[in-house]
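Narrative of accomplishments. A recurring question from our advisory board has been how the design workflow behaves on a single, concrete structure rather than in aggregate. To address it, we present the structure tokens for one chain from the evaluation set, followed by the sequence designed for it. No filtering or post-editing was applied between the two.
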């Protein structure tokens, strides 16, 4: 959770994490599609007003989880943000 962080900044932080993990070149033996370990990250940006409307942390985490699954569907090793318009 990145409090007080705007959506664009959240994506930047997530992409830095993704890039640094890929740069470690951790071997991924047995993977038919990837030589090295990579990560996909999903995030959602929720304003204080939206958080009050959504009501529970579980609903907020569910939005980020949806974004993570979209990242995996998009070919992995990427960052995807979720918004209700998607």
């Amino acid at each position: 959770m990145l409090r007080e962080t705007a959506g664009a900044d959240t994506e930047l932080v997530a992409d830095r994490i993704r890039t640094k993990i890929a740069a470690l070149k951790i071997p991924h033996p047995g993977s038919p599609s990837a030589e090295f370990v990579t990560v996909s990250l999903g995030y959602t940006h929720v304003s204080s007003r939206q958080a009050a409307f959504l009501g529970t942390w579980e609903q907020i985490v569910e939005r980020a989880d949806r974004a993570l699954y979209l990242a995996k569907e998009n070919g992995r090793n990427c960052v995807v943000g979720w918004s209700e318009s998607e």
